[in-house]
Design goal:
By secondary structure, the protein is α+β, with helices and mostly antiparallel strands. The chain has eight helices and eight strands; from the N terminus they run H-H-E-H-E-H-E-H-E-E-E-H-E-E-H-H. It has a single domain, classed as Peptide methionine sulphoxide reductase MsrA (Peptide Methionine Sulfoxide Reductase, Chain A), CATH 3.30.1060. Strand 6, helix 6 and strand 7 form a beta-alpha-beta unit.
Length: 224
């Protein structure tokens, strides 16, 4: 049984884990954030730009962005380490440099990079938790934005500074902004995981609330 599979059994059978998850949970309610002051303009352009984000277990982050208007596709994978170590069991050691990440392909005529970051910071994960999200611990669960160019770097750094200055969170944002050196797709069984495991205790406690928060907080962006 995988590490996460064993954790799901424990979560489902013991009250202790319910208390633990409640104490260390990711955002269980929405956080109202301002729009980014620095952002790209909505515009028709050739091709489909991508955003690579890491916010804990990729199952929940993947599920959130699959329900965002203007997003063409979301793929779970690994970023931050080498191709040779981009395997789940190895990444789970926390020693590879990888973070569980998602690659988001989006339509710049419908949604901007800054708007994707607003969703990321408000409902997809808790950006104030260092090397953990909810019940998951380790550097592979860190909060990170893997930027592909200087424009993405400028927007990401400016938005983090804006949110910290506005003190919308009780603690400072610990999200890393680092250059994207590679994105490696995760194993097939991780793709679209939430949709195939709706009865999983882990999914029900940690990830389904994120999708519901997206629907409530961003009704104009939410799609089924």
């Amino acid at each position: 049984m995988s590490h996460r599979g064993a954790r799901q059994v424990v979560i489902g059978l013991t009250l202790l884990c319910f208390v633990y998850v409640a104490r260390h949970a990711t955002l269980s309610a929405t956080v109202s954030l301002p729009n980014p002051v620095v952002d790209e303009q909505l515009a028709v352009s050739e091709g489909w730009p991508t955003a690579v984000l890491a916010g804990g277990c990729f199952w929940g982050v993947d599920a959130v962005f699959k329900h965002v208007r203007g997003v063409k596709s979301v793929t779970s994978g690994y970023s931050g380490g080498s191709r040779s170590t981009a395997q789940y069991e190895i990444v789970s050691s926390g020693l590879t440099g990888h973070a569980e990440s998602v690659r988001i392909v989006y339509d710049p005529a419908q949604i901007s990079y800054g708007q994707l970051l607003k969703v990321f910071f408000s409902v997809a994960h808790n950006p104030t938790q260092l090397n953990r999200q909810g019940p998951d611990e380790g550097t592979q669960y860190r909060s990170a934005i893997f930027v592909a160019n200087e424009e993405q770097k400028r927007i990401a750094q400016a938005y983090i500074a804006q949110l910290n200055q506005a003190k919308v969170f009780q603690r400072p944002i610990v999200t890393q902004v680092v250059g994207l050196t590679g994105f490696y797709e995760a194993e097939d069984y991780h793709q679209d995981y939430l949709a195939h495991h709706l009865d999983s205790p882990y999914i029900r406690m940690n990830d389904l609330p994120k999708v519901e928060n997206l629907r409530q907080e961003f009704p104009d962006l939410y799609v089924r």
